[in-house]
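We emphasize that the prediction below concerns an isolated chain of 477 residues; any contacts that depend on oligomerization or on bound cofactors are therefore not represented. The input was used exactly as deposited, without trimming of termini.
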Amino acid sequence: MKSIYLSIVVFFIACLSGISQNKELLYNFNEVPQSLLLNPGTSTSFKWYAGVPVLSGVSFQAGVTGITSNDLFAVDGVDFNTKFLDKVVYGMDSKDELSGTYQIEILNVGFRGRKNPNNFYSFGIYNEGDAIGYYFEDYALLAFEGNTNNIDKRFDLSDLKTRGEVVNVYHFGINKKVSRQLDLGFRAKVYSSILNFSSTDNSGYFVTTEGDENLLQATLVADLKINTSGIFELKDAIDNDESIADIITKRALFGGDLGLGFDLGFTYKLDRQTYITGSILDIGFISHTNDLRTYSLKGKATSEGINVILPDDLGSGSDEWRELVDDLESLVPYEETEERYVTFRPTKLYASIGHDFGDEIEPRQDCNCTTKPGGGYVDNIYKNSVGGQLYVINRPRGPQAALTGFYQHRFGNIMSLKATYTVDKYSFANVGLGGSLQAGPVNMYLMADNLFGYSNLANTNYASVLFGLNIISWGKK
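Result of the prediction step, given as a token string:
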């Protein structure tokens, strides 16, 4: 019991830094080159840009549903065990999400085509980690309550749903200004997986009922599987005090499990001041073939234990116990194999509608010529923008959505600020603020979500920070 209790505590605390992938502040923030990674069809006016390696795009986000760390660790005179039972074991359910992601750009470069300035090309590398786990409600209830007082209750084994990975992504994108109204974009991706674990398609139950020969009988119906790749070689290196840098570098440079994917996006102007945008990201897969471990438990068994007649059976029960264990293992076999498997990327969808208003801002690029750095058509730039955004990500328990309202104000071509209000499963009052500063050719941006939560991080469900440095050129006027 103590080991089960400890494992739940460790798993929960580790996931208190869980994360969502929504980057609503960066989406449609056209002054920042990294917005192309969220919509390859966004409107661009750069002649070229180059991100500062490793510092051009760094994002960390944290969130958890159902509880905050303050619920457990606040100094309020309540015993920790009591709070854990009330807030976690009996306070959370299987829909509560514990997830996490980060992204660090290693390289990001973009440039406009010489022969056709309406084409803008970009390429780069970024490292990304993503993990998600749903609270295993029935497992926790069974561990803490046992089955004696839960006669006829089916404990759902499908509550175990989790996946995670660390991957390097190599990408190349094309953005084309088709007309004054339409921009289209495509981005191809090659994935080089460093490590992965996946257990998302589990089913079965455990139930205790009245027995025929004994008081109780237990039935287990299980179809459980956990796939892993790239983990145990790293574990062995750590156990043997060996460097893991070479292993990680090799896997990041196409020496790991490989996959393919792509992004699509567009921007369409309904008129000079109103536009709609949309993108779909990470339509792709990874084939896992290296350093594999697959753990499975599949079958059905019903047992009433063993019948012991006292005192005649004293000293002979061990054989019956051995037979019982052997029977259960044959009915519900546990297997460890090396099974190849395929995972699909967590596909993301963005969409928005926006309206520009206020005074026009003089564009950086030349006007009314076909060789200007911004392409064959000039976009009108206004001081203000307002609108709404939709974000959806595919998760093991189905799509997860967020709705955002935004307002953006531009201080000429020097600075731009964007404020957002987002409603999602983490919070109904997520206010964010992002800014981009252009100091000559140097572009700096900083964005943060859920600003009201920073006054007490221990009592918030969500926090997010993005920042980066770029060198940008619009060419000579």
